[in-house]
Amino acid sequence: MKILSAAQTRAADAFTAEQENIPSLALMERAASAFVGWFENKFYTNRVQPILIFCGPGNNGGDGLAIARLLYQHHYPVQVFILPAAHTYAPDFTANLQRLPDEIIKTYLHTKTDCPEISDKTIVVDALFGTGLNRPLTGFITELITQINSSSATVVAVDMPSGLFTDAHNKLTDCIVQADYTLSFELPKIAFLLPGNARYVGDWTIVPIGLNAEFISQIESPYFFISSDIPATILKPRPKYSHKGTFGHALLISGSYGKIGATVLSAKACLRSGVGLLTVHCPAAGYTILQTAVPEAMTLTDKEADFISELPDLSIYNAIGIGPGLGKHPATRQMVKHLLNTTQVPLVIDADALNIIAEDENLKNALPPNSILTPHPKEFERLTGKAENDYHRLDLLKEFCQKHSCYVVLKGAHSCIGTPAGAYYFNGTGNPGMATGGTGDVLTGIITALIAQQYSALDACILGVYLHGSAGDIAKMEMGEQALLASDLIQNLGKAFLKCSYLTK
Ligand SMILES: NC(=O)C1=CN([C@@H]2O[C@H](COP(=O)(O)OP(=O)(O)OC[C@H]3O[C@@H](n4cnc5c(N)ncnc54)[C@H](O)[C@@H]3O)[C@@H](O)[C@H]2O)[C@@H](O)CC1
Ligand SMILES: Nc1ncnc2c1ncn2[C@@H]1O[C@H](COP(=O)(O)OP(=O)(O)O)[C@@H](O)[C@H]1O
Ligand SMILES: [K+]
Q: Is the CB of 96 under 6 A from ligand 1?
């Protein structure tokens, strides 16, 4: 699914209205109906809590007025509060104001004293500003928003939390509505996918309003959201006459004393992701553990008991994953250096292998083209330096991928894949239960297996993060978030593959 900027969203709205001969007012009605459908589902028994709808002067405010009318028709106790317009109200705002039933109390807000009391039991609908915000909010509006934010009311934002830019950085001092829920139209917004905005956006949902699909597919955007649509087109069926050689031979270089568990997790995930053959190169101390815990994998041991100091013959492998549990022993550093200087096989690089590379500019420059790096934010910071904010981090991601011709999976709640072509793919699966040790090792195993099966680097990253998160979501259905372990992701990879394969049909 493509992600559009605020300007592109406006263009998509305008094109849809013109091309499909739908008045913009009808599009607004669709948006309001979609909002109300979601709202009724969420708060369906509740027709006593007062609903305070705050409307700005633009189309977002117009949505608010249409929502007020529809909720009133569904017997919700709504009240409307309207901001003064600096110049004029948007035409569709005015049209919806005229359609507002007289029974709905409407109040114009000029100063703070006009603002209503907002009790705990209230539901606030924030329709002040949406994608048309063009500067930080100032003046009296900030007092209103501060009052909304300091109340214990449930806050539902229409399209965007007011004050939050759709696609640009907000300063920490900017005044922004802190919504519990954001119901947004047609496509996710970049702002929803960045960790720093979580406290404003809350739990977000997208509802379709029928914007022109052809227009959206033609418009150029570097930003994509990975929902089931993209992975379903990537997953390949296993041919009837295939054999284990068809699905590649992966090598996993992993482990050090006390961290063989990371190797076990990564190896199991690799095997559960369809690889034909897997060999693990680990410290000698890991031999019995691996042969017992992962009998399907072949094990090669290092001459050292507790860390890896040497490389096996690499010539027979068509995918190499390195990093989980590796440690940073000087001999291990040398091994990583040697690997980067001798192989042109793209690597899947995680954990301490990333930390070793981060400490040496020459190693970054020696990355084989099309390698995949899977840092969490701290590891990423070691690679690129500190980001000033979430948007700057995206710039650093792009620069790094372009400079080193590699793919980076910047892990997080919405893991973001950066590509050498400058695209960004944000993952939509996964949950906070996955914020637990070992889940990253599982991802390394999955992506290494997909590379061994000849998926392109980009496809392996997309399918990998999607299946990894999907396995986490399936595990969550059984056991919730607190008890979730990295092993549970491996247990549920089969179901995640199945679910994805049903979507390809
Ligand atoms: N255009 C369409 O066809 C549709 C638009 N929709 C709604 O329209 C919204 C976008 O509407 P608009 O483009 O009118 O924009 P907004 O309603 O977000 O805000 C624009 C208005 O706010 C003013 N403004 C911007 N920043 C300000 C600031 N910091 N302080 C004070 N005033 C400020 C602008 O001058 C303008 O008057 C979407 O978020 C969505 O809610 C939906 O109804 C779907 C269809
Ligand atoms: N809140 C979250 N929501 C969704 N996924 C998450 C969340 N927190 C972590 N994850 C996922 O879990 C994994 C954690 O990886 P990492 O930090 O490397 O763990 P480890 O080093 O312990 O294996 C990543 O794939 C990340 O995207
Ligand atoms: K809003």
A: no
Judge if the beta carbon of residue 474 lies within 6 A of ligand 2: no
- Report the alpha-carbon distance of residue 226 to residue 205 in Å, rounded: 15
Q: For residue 468, which atom of ligand 2 is closest to its CA?
A: 25
* Cα torsion angle, 94, 19, 128, 120, sign: positive
- Tell me the pLDDT tens digit for each residue of 132-148: 999 999 999 999 999 99
DSSP string, 358-390: HT-HHHHHTPPTT-EE---HHHHHHHH---SSH
Q: Establish whether residue 131 lines the binding site of ligand 1, counting it when its CB lies within 6 angstroms of any ligand atom.
A: yes
CA distance 178 to 150: 9
Say if CB 275 and CB 247 are below 8 A apart. yes
Beta carbon of 64 within 6 Å of any ligand 1 atom: no
Ligand in nearest proximity to the CA of 212: 1
- Structure tokens belonging to residue 228: 């089931």
What are the structural domains of the chain? Answer: 6-221 (3.40.50.10260), 231-504 (3.40.1190.20)
ipTM rounded to 2 decimals: 0.92
Ligand 1, residue 13: give the atom nearest the CA. Answer: 3
Packing angle of the helix pair 59-73, 24-42 (nearest 10 deg): 50
